[in-house]
Amino acid sequence: MIKDILNEDLFNILKKASNILKENKYVRVLAHYDGDGVSSSIILLKTLERLDIKYHSGYIKNLDNEGFRELYDEEPDVLNIIVDAGSSQAQSIADYEKFIILDHHFYSKSDVKGININARDYGINGTREACGATMAFIFSLVIDENNKDLFPFFMAGVIADKQDIGGLSGLNKALYDNYNTYPTKHVLNFEGNIKDGITYSLDPFFINLSGYPDKVGAFLSKNNIDSNKSVMELTTDDNKLLGNLLSLKMLENNVGMDAIKYLESDILYFDDLGFSSKELNSIIDGNSRTANQSVPVQYFLGDKSVENDMLNNVKIYKTKLIDYIYRANSEIKEEKYLRYFYSPESEMAGPISGALELYAMKPDKPVIGFNSGSDDIKISSRGTKTLVSRGLNLSLVMKEACEKAGGSGGGHDIAAGGVIPQGKEKIFIDAANNIIKLQLKSI
Asked: What is the domain partition of the chain in residue ranges?
């Protein structure tokens, strides 16, 4: 039972929020637009359907206070459930009270009339132990324990937020241990057959293999590995051989152990959905990154007519992102305490930053991606667990450096984002360099 997993204060506030929810016949769900946020929204929308509560769903792209306020103001008189965002923005809607926030990001506390439930306020590490889908799942379980069948979408959010790297921990692990009923296999972290799995692999990403089917075919043939085998069909010996070979390929690029750890994973097969945990995450995240958030939501809420579009969107996303990663890698700029590049699309800056940071270079400094929009510049930043252990906190870097450049930012210690006005990149870079220098000065 979920009551046995959560501490009393967290359970009680979720129970209070669930009672408020049940008093409403119509609510609005606002979720962050990424893979974790969309996974969270699927959990919440399925929960609402089971309660026979009508809903409208939307996605949050602009996380600054003004943009968030404008989005909220579209339907301020109905109950808004805000997931995978909201705690940092709550001050902008402090005069309203009809909202429930389910979040896990760093934030500065402020007095609000609504309910702000953030994992960090209950002793839970929101970077590694709980994501947006975690918060949505426990809320759903408090409403009705039968919602345990929404476990696959909880796992999709965990994977999208990279909280599975190195194994689950904290609340995520407790939920996994208590609610997983699916077969699990520890295998290489790919989808489909081995050749396609490596060719379209983003996490992990293999320089000079990802995106090059001919090179992948030659690599597999040279090592007598059947390219048509599914990753789930590999024997233990085959899995070990291919894992060792790919590890060596990764080490050629001076990657750290954080990258090597992501080469293998515990992959679950969700037989009721027809997808593995890796595939489910790719579907939700790939559609999210191509501004098609509603497509997997439609599909998993029962509209199977969108299946072809949903799967094609993933292929488009992967092909495009692989090209962007190689382009950014060739154009990256070096500063003393960070690296940066310009992304052609804002939705791609985060994944590009993550791939470059983990798989393309020595992990001695964070990577920052800029995207120039019509009115402002969106920024995504990525670090590693090793850098975080040395003192890096990108949430603070983004918050303080963006503010110095006239914008705003925040997020996790290992991954964060922000927005600044056009032409203020130099101010941001100088400020970020100084902040990161101070954070890492003890080493």
From this structure: 2-157, 184-324, 332-439
State the amino acid at position 236 in one-letter form. Answer: T
What tokens were used for 22? 């049940």
Residues 247-263 pLDDT 10s: 999 998 888 888 888 88
pLDDT confidence tier of residue 232, bands split at 50, 70 and 90: confident
Best CATH choice for the domain 332-439 from the list 3.30.390.50, 3.40.1190.20, 2.60.120.20, 3.10.310.40: 3.10.310.40
The first and second tokens of residue 170, run together, are 């904290």
Strand-pair partners of 380 = 369, 417
Residue 149: CB partners within 8 Å, gap ≥ 6?
272
The answer to whether 421 and 406 are in contact (CB under 8 A) is yes
Round to whole Å and give the CA distance between 89 and 4. Answer: 31
Please report the pLDDT score of residue 79 as a whole number.
96
| Gyration radius from the chain CA atoms | 21
CATH number at 2-157: 3.90.1640.30
How distant is the alpha carbon of residue 101 from its chain centre?
18
Model confidence pTM above 0.90: no
* CA angle, 342 then 156 then 174, to 5°: 125
Question: How is the beta sheet containing 367-372 ordered, strand by strand?
Answer: 333-334, 339-342, 367-372, 376-382, 415-421, 408-411
Beta bridge partners of 187: 265
Q: What is the pLDDT of residues 102-154, one digit of tens each?
A: 999 988 888 899 999 999 999 999 989 999 999 999 999 999 999 999 999 99
| Spacing of C-alpha 114 from chain mean position | 26
